[in-house]
Amino acid sequence: MRGSVGPGACARSLPGVGQPVFSHATTDAVEFYRRHGWVLTATLDAAACAALRDWVDAVMAWPDDGEWLHYREMTDDGPRLCRTENFVPFHTGLRELLATGAMVETAGALLGEPAVLYKEKINYKAVGGAGYAPHQDAPAYRFVESHVSCMVAIDDADAENGCLEVVSDAFDTVLPMDDEGCIRADVMDTLDWETVEVRAGTTLWFHSRTPHRSGPNRSDRDRRALYPTYNARREGDLRAAYYQQKLAEFTDAGGVDGRVQVSLINDFQGRSV
Ligand SMILES: O=C(O)CCC(=O)C(=O)O
To answer: How many helices (H) does the chain have, and how many strands (E)?
Structure first.
């Protein structure tokens, strides 16, 4: 399943993508991440991307009554799946991709110590799907201090279908938040937001305090992405505890002001079904 991306320290630029893409967690990639709080690496080749799309299609077809968590949002075309979480116990290929091998090793290289999978989600952002308010992930994480997340693009993500925007060099502190746990509007306006287009098979790694946001999907193409989060292994294997705590903290499925609650902060702008 793993991509056939060869070793080598050189970053390459993809057509239409401004930022460097490193072949894997090279010294240069780690240095880029430590300086800016995010970095792009090439993860999957075309065949691996095709397999990943099949796996994700299969997950999307899973029923609602399993132990995984499916969430839906209302779009102008009716209810659409917006997120699935807690799926690695139930899918061998996705478990091997996210919880073993190159992904965990890259997370460890970026953290500077061995890593373990903390949680995982698929954000589907279907045509007409909503975006995410500016936030940092750290306030939503329980039990761990040292973590890194990433977005593995399943489909090409661009400005039209709601790719991520990040702020470079701004991961030293947790910024002032509003009542929803998102970055306060007056602070958001002072930040320098950078659009990061990500080709399918490429991974955008980001620090848990790197400010990020995304717009709605205004295109006619779905924008699906895997988001595993890793924590330093010395802090423990806390995946099961994370999901137990998340379920305990979720008060109801209706969310705030008619929006869907998918996270421990109210960053998601999707309408409830
Ligand atoms: O998938 C996106 O567009 C943004 C996701 C995100 O920031 C999140 O799930 O916290």
So the answer is: 6, 13
Expressed in angstroms and rounded, the spacing between residue 35 Cα and the centre of ligand 1 is: 22
Give the pair of three-digit tokens for residue 100. 């073993």
H or E segment to which residue 229 belongs: strand 225-232
Q: What are phi and psi of 219, to 5 degrees?
A: -95, -175
Q: Which residues line ligand 1 (CB under 6 A)?
A: 123, 125, 132, 137, 162, 164, 212, 214, 225, 227, 267
Ligand 1 atom 3, closest CA: 214
CATH hierarchy code of domain 11-249: 2.60.120.620
Closest alpha carbon to 22 in 1, 7, 3: 7
For the chain, the C-alpha Rg in angstroms (whole number) is: 17
List the residue whose alpha carbon is closest to atom 6 of ligand 1: 132
Distance 224 CA to ligand 1 centre (A): 11
Q: How far apart are CA 59 and CA 202, in angstroms?
A: 21
CA 205 to ligand 1 center in whole angstroms: 12
Ligand 1: atom nearest CA of 164 is 3
pTM: 0.92
Residue pair 154/226 in contact by the 8 Å Cβ criterion: yes
Q: Report the pLDDT value the prediction gives residue 255, as an integer from 0 to 100.
A: 55
**18 alpha carbon to ligand 1 midpoint, in Å?**
21
Mutation test residue for ligand 1: of 195, 267, 269, the one with most atoms within 8 Å of CB: 267
pLDDT averaged over consecutive 10-residue blocks of the chain (273 residues)? 32 56 93 97 95 98 94 96 97 98 97 97 98 94 88 97 97 95 96 96 97 98 98 96 84 62 86 93
